[in-house]
Amino acid sequence: MSREEALKIILDTVKPIERTESVGIDEAVNRVLACDVRAEVDVPPFDRAAMDGYAVRAEDTFRASQFNPVKLKVVGFLHAGESFKGEIKGGECIRIATGCPIPDGADAVVMVEFTEEKDGYVLIFRGVYPGENIASRGEDIKRGEIILKKGELLTPAKIGVLAALGYRRISVYQKPHVAVIPTGSEIRDPASPLGEGQIYDVNSYTLTSILLENGALVTRSSIIPDTFDDIISAITRHLDHDLIVFSGGSSVGERDLLVKAIEKMGSLLFHGVQIKPGKPTLFGLVKETPILGMPGYPTSCLSNAYIFLVPAIRKMARLPPKDPRVVRARMGVRVVSASGREQFLTVKIKNGVAYPVFKASGDITSMAKADGYIILPVNLDVIEKGEEVTVTLFD
Amino acid sequence: MSREEALKIILDTVKPIERTESVGIDEAVNRVLACDVRAEVDVPPFDRAAMDGYAVRAEDTFRASQFNPVKLKVVGFLHAGESFKGEIKGGECIRIATGCPIPDGADAVVMVEFTEEKDGYVLIFRGVYPGENIASRGEDIKRGEIILKKGELLTPAKIGVLAALGYRRISVYQKPHVAVIPTGSEIRDPASPLGEGQIYDVNSYTLTSILLENGALVTRSSIIPDTFDDIISAITRHLDHDLIVFSGGSSVGERDLLVKAIEKMGSLLFHGVQIKPGKPTLFGLVKETPILGMPGYPTSCLSNAYIFLVPAIRKMARLPPKDPRVVRARMGVRVVSASGREQFLTVKIKNGVAYPVFKASGDITSMAKADGYIILPVNLDVIEKGEEVTVTLFD
Q1: What pLDDT is attached to residue B65?
Q2: Cβ pair A80:B186 closer than 8 A
Q3: Interface touch A140/B360, C-beta < 8 Å
Q4: Mutation target among B134, B143, B200, B203 for the A interface, most CBs of A within 10 A
Q5: Which residues, 6 or more positions from A192, have their beta carbon under 8 angstroms from its beta carbon?
Q6: What is the full DSSP assignment across A116-148?
Q7: Residues 6+ apart with CB under 8 A from A8
Q8: Residues in chain A with pLDDT values less than 70
């Protein structure tokens, strides 16, 4: 099965989360709106001064100029947060701060820069037209308008819109809840003492990190021994999650146990992908819960997580597909594609030149040093030194 | 003062956080390492099988071929997590799962695909060279090697390296702790009833969102009235933070209070930037704490946050500078630059054509609808319809 076919099966199977929850708008950035947002108020909620200056009847100022200023009586001073109860009459004005409501009678604001105040009167040196320097009620958002839609990603600006409309909390979709289950009789949790033939669990930590970065909640289970009964029981215990990801099982025997467990409890949708590294990746469904089995080797597990798990979890979390940054580079060495499979080659870029960092498929350092990867198509045998390639960056 | 000069002053003033804390590696993604990491173990910690198959003495297999297989005695079966106490002698082999330690005496693994087992013996149809299909002890990481350096950003792959080395917790730099202080006698917290002339606080929520996205911890203060004493007291109460950000104060009078407060308590480093929107942005230092005063209009506040606050907080958090995505687009309408200032024009992109979304500087919806922005230089008066422009995307 090709990578494209495998990814299509995964994306056809996983479903966007329907559960919602209410969160404070101060913690809602990058969450996904679960309702349309209709404006219950006008923004601004009243005609207001867009500048510091004098609220006037515009017609009083029409003849004003630098050499023939108009003189108006100042009947008050509105500071921020204040409003004026009376009405501005012909020949009158009121000093006003930006953001204050325009008093009745006034229909424009003269900027303070074009005035001179003295003894209760102000000289106006420039005329204004009706509406000048006023932000009208509802100019930004009109009451009744649907201003944000269900499914929109909440950016800082959209959170600002919610605040402007008076929302302190908002309904968003819940994050998909993923169980990461490390398996393997030979693996131990970091910081435990290592016995003969044992190694530390790497994959459940890299997978957890990737899931957290892509909008999931993660439960990392304790390490499950490689027995059929333990795997059946681990799946059963985690069926209340939105997705189960198994990490580990680098030997054929271990993978076969997971295949058999899924076949017994539900259905296996694929096992084996024509991609290097990553051949052993498998996917199935038990009741409503999709189960992804990742390769055991850390680099294979990680690159397959970028290829299959990230698109799956972003669909479930209703996040837009990741649009990775790509750069062009020249290959620093000759690369021979060993397999008849599509190949992911991790590279480091120095001064526009790409060098492979891959050592052996068990190596985690190669991924840690890589800036990105090149995809070698199935039918490509060699990339010559100096040839131009497209590198997809990890970021 | 130009944008470049203002940004330089800010970046010369704010300091990367020196405080560290210990976090679990399962929550350390995107944190910054506060120590060099030296490998205390070899990875892998022993010579191990890189394939499922038979661990053999390579010399026993040299003559093996499809038509002349070599027959070896199978003296055991190592499943994942098991190891073999004895030694493999001439004419012997052991069945071995990927990842198991290579027993003494054996020096290669024959892949199971090239074998046939029957009655305690196995036929080997292909020879192997010494070391074939073995991952040697320390091949990935050598004990004593410094494998990750202080200041590195922890990606999923680097968290995998920490796990492989047996670290369950790791020392990272603390996140900068920022106080966001909304000011303004006219603003109310969302969900409170609005009185005459009052509007909801928008800026402290957009700023909080931007800060959280860029690696900060945020304390949002209650709304501070526009009086000199209240501002002095708000600064005093928050001096234990790494940065204080004032939002609000769209009128000249309000801004002047903050200017005077900073001048009384410390030093004002700049006030006013030749950029539109954003002229009123100010920056100062009280004791050791930098204070950034943002414009009061939501769009001005938000665009100035992208210009000044994001680089500042990322330096403090020791995160790499944001490398924004840029696209080329054609201008959908003729744009006239009104000011003698550098101008940030927010745009929406449809089918490769950029349309301004800016309505008035008080509008928050314009930012919420924008895909990115164009910078119009100080000396540029007009962009013709159809002219090519560079759009920096918000993402």
Answers
A1: 92
A2: yes
A3: yes
A4: B200
A5: none
A6: EEETTEEEE-S---TTTTEEPTTSSB-TT-EEE
A7: none
A8: 249-252, 338-339, 359-362
Q: What is the pLDDT of residue A360?
A: 64
Per DSSP, B344 falls in state E
CB-based contact B185 A80, cutoff 8 Å: yes
Domains of chain B: 3-16+175-316 (3.40.980.10), 21-43+141-173 (3.90.105.10), 48-135 (2.170.190.11), 326-393 (2.40.340.10)
ipTM of this complex = 0.90
User: Smallest Cβ distance to A197: which of B52, B101, B203?
Assistant: B101
Neighbours of A213 (CB within 10 A): 15
The string of DSSP codes covering A205-225 is: HHHHHHHHHTT-EEEEPPPBP
Distance separating alpha carbons of residues A280 and A296, to the nearest angstrom: 8
B334: its two tokens: 């003729």
As a residue count, chain A comes to 395
Inter-chain residue contact A184 with B81, CB threshold 8 Å: yes
Q: Which residues of B touch A155 (CB under 8 A)?
A: 209, 368, 394
| Residue A338 pLDDT | 67
pTM of the model: 0.91
Distance CA B266, CA B256 (A): 15
As a dihedral over the C-alpha atoms of residue B96, residue B102, residue B103, residue B108, rounded to 10 degrees, the angle is: 90
Q: In Å, what is the CA distance from B267 to each residue of A214, A276, B62, B243, B283?
A: 42, 60, 81, 15, 9
Asked if residue B211 lies in contact with residue B205, where contact means CB atoms within 8 angstroms, the answer is no
Sheet holding B282-286, edge to edge: B217-220, B177-182, B243-247, B289-293, B282-286, B267-271
- Any idea which residue has 């943002």 for tokens? B294
Out of A140, A190, A370, closest to residue B25 by CB: A190
Given A156, A361, A368, which is nearest B160 (Cβ)?
Answer: A368
Residues lower than pLDDT 50 in chain B: none
| H/E stretch holding A270 | strand A267-271
Q: Which pLDDT score is estimated for A200? A: 93
CB within 8 Å: A81 and B226: yes
Show the tokens assigned to B183. 């000011």
Please give the single-letter amino acid code of residue A377.
Answer: P
Q: Which of A165, A209, A360 sits opposite B29 (nearest CB)?
A: A209
A226/B200 touch (CB, cutoff 8 Å), yes or no: no
